[in-house]
Structure formats: structure tokens, C-alpha cells
Design goal:
Strand order of the largest sheet: 3-2-1-7-8-9
Radius of gyration: 19 Å
Order of helices and strands: HEHHHHHEHEEEEHEHEEH
Distance between the termini: 20 Å
Largest sheet: 6 strands, parallel
Structural class: alpha/beta
Mean pLDDT: 94
Bound molecules: nicotinamide-adenine-dinucleotide
Shape: elongated
Low-confidence stretches: none
């Protein structure tokens, strides 16, 4: 069991509003590769400019579509891990709880989290690359398939490098960061902006900011508490400690 500092639990137990930002690391223990880790991250094997930009899709739509289809299949085979489950449970412990994720894998929702703010879209959705229209059915036999309305190519509904984040999602995430008593970061290298700004916004607004990551991050130096461990171990320990303090 991971030791959670009593001062942290005290802050959490008193908190009315809690906001959480997750990144690829929270799904690592489900077998979903992260992006920037040197040995195992996706960007150690692939170049983002070949796969995760609008220009890449224009240049080679089949390559990009197939890469996302591979990731969609990988995620469909994965299961939420104890970190996802602890956050879904935690939602029921606070008056106001906002879960913001940079992940596109849908594992938070599968663990039972509600009203998840998806900053970078979702692998589960597709849309017309030309008109932006969402398309409900995944046509199976083309790569990429084409829009039933205009015939344009369909693309994953994720945010690529160089693209804007969905405005409403970002505004809701900023509001939560500004208003929370405790801001929890789990499994993010916190280098991709604007998501990486959220813990800093919370810090400036006076929140207790907690970072959970087995590795040393730039964020860890600035936060109130840095917990160096896997989120699938640390988050359940944090929930158990919170419940114990509240019960007793
Ligand atoms: P990242 O790969 O940059 O960082 C993952 C972090 O998780 C690392 O700091 C690592 O130490 C940590 N980690 C590893 N195992 C962990 C564990 N068990 N528990 C806790 N932490 C663990 O991923 P990120 O921070 O999410 O990157 C930012 C975002 O950028 C991504 O989530 C992604 O949405 C986005 N992005 C999108 C695309 C795209 O294809 N559209 C491309 C690149 C990045």
C-alpha cells in the first residue's frame, strides 16, 4: 500500500470542489502505451508529424486512419485499471468533482466516471474531415471511409497537433481549475498546452495541487504534493485514506 501524507488527506477531506486532470499514464497499467516515454511511448516508434496532424491526414489518409483504427482496437481490448476505478469512486465523495482528461481512450467512462471533459476528443467518434459533421456509424470496408453526406473522407474526432481544443470543454476545464480546492494530476507529462496550464491555473488560484507520476516531471517541482508511484496504486490508496479519515 502506498503511504499518502496525512497533510494531503487532511486537505482532501476538507475539500468541497475537486478537479482532476489525467493523461496517458493513467491508462498505462491497462496496457495502453503513453506518448512521450523514451522506451515505450508511441512517439518513440512513430513520428507525430506523420500521424497526428491535419497535414499528415491530407498527405496519407490511409496511414493515419489505419493507425487510429489500430489504437481503437487496442483500447477496445483494454480494461479500466484500479486508477480509473478509484477516480470513478472519488466522484461520489465530493459535492463538486470535475474529471478532465487528455486521453481519447474512453476508459474513464468505462470505469463509471460521469460527465468527463475530453480535451482531446475521443477514439470512439468519427467525423467528416471536410464539413466536421459527426458520423454515427463506422463504415468497415474503406480506409478511410467516406462521409455519407458529402463524400469527403472521415477522420477520428480527436485533436491533432496544430488544432484548437474544443472551446466548451476547455472553458469548463479552466473554470474547474480556477474554482477547485484540490487539483489532482495523474499520469501526465504536463507538457502539452493548453492542458498543461490547468494545474498552474489551480496553483495560482490557491488550490492544493497534487501530482501523481512514477517519474520526475517539471510539474512535480511546483506542486504542493508530488507522489511518485503508479496511479493504479496511488489513487486507490488515496481513496482508502480519505474514506478512513472521513469515517473516523
Ligand atoms: P505523455 O506520454 O506525454 O506522458 C505520460 C506520463 O505518464 C509520463 O509522465 C509518465 O511518466 C507517466 N506514467 C507512466 N506510467 C504511469 C503510471 N502507471 N501512473 C502514472 N503515471 C504514469 O502523455 P500525456 O501527458 O497524456 O500527453 C499529453 C497529451 O497530448 C496526450 O494525452 C494526448 O492526448 C496528446 N497528444 C495527442 C496526440 C494525438 O494523436 N492527437 C498526439 C500526441 C499527444
Amino acid at each position: 500500500m502506498f503511504d499518502i501524507p496525512p497533510k494531503l488527506i487532511d486537505k482532501l477531506a476538507r475539500a468541497r470542489r475537486v478537479a482532476v486532470l489525467t493523461g496517458a499514464g493513467i491508462s498505462a497499467e491497462s496496457g495502453v502505451p503513453t506518448f512521450r516515454e523514451a522506451r515505450t511511448g508511441l512517439w518513440a516508434r512513430y513520428r507525430p508529424e506523420d500521424l497526428a496532424t491535419p497535414e499528415a491526414f491530407e498527405r496519407d489518409p490511409k496511414l493515419v486512419w489505419d493507425w487510429y483504427a489500430w489504437r481503437r482496437a487496442l483500447v477496445a481490448d483494454a480494461q479500466p485499471n484500479p486508477g480509473h476505478h478509484a477516480l470513478a469512486e472519488m466522484q461520489t465523495r465530493f459535492e463538486d468533482f470535475t474529471l478532465i482528461t487528455q486521453n481519447v481512450d474512453g476508459l474513464h467512462q468505462r470505469a463509471g466516471s460521469r460527465d468527463v471533459i475530453e480535451l482531446h476528443g475521443s477514439l470512439a467518434r468519427i467525423r467528416c474531415a471536410r464539413e466536421g459533421t459527426p458520423v454515427a456509424v463506422f463504415p468497415a470496408d474503406e480506409s478511410p471511409p467516406h462521409c455519407p453526406c458529402c463524400g469527403g473522407p472521415l477522420r477520428p474526432d480527436v485533436v491533432w497537433f496544430g488544432e484548437m481544443l474544443p472551446i466548451e470543454a476547455l472553458a469548463a476545464a479552466n473554470d474547474a481549475a480556477m474554482a477547485c480546492d484540490v487539483f489532482l494530476c495523474a499520469g501526465t507529462s504536463a507538457v502539452v498546452f493548453p492542458a498543461a496550464d490547468l494545474p498552474l491555473i489551480a496553483l495560482r488560484a490557491g488550490a492544493t495541487v497534487i501530482d501523481i507520476n512514477p517519474a520526475e516531471t517539471e510539474l512535480a517541482e511546483r506542486v504542493s504534493f508530488a507522489l511518485h508511484g503508479p496511479s493504479g496504486v496511488v489513487l486507490p490508496a488515496m481513496l482508502a485514506a480519505l474514506d478512513a479519515v472521513r469515517a473516523g
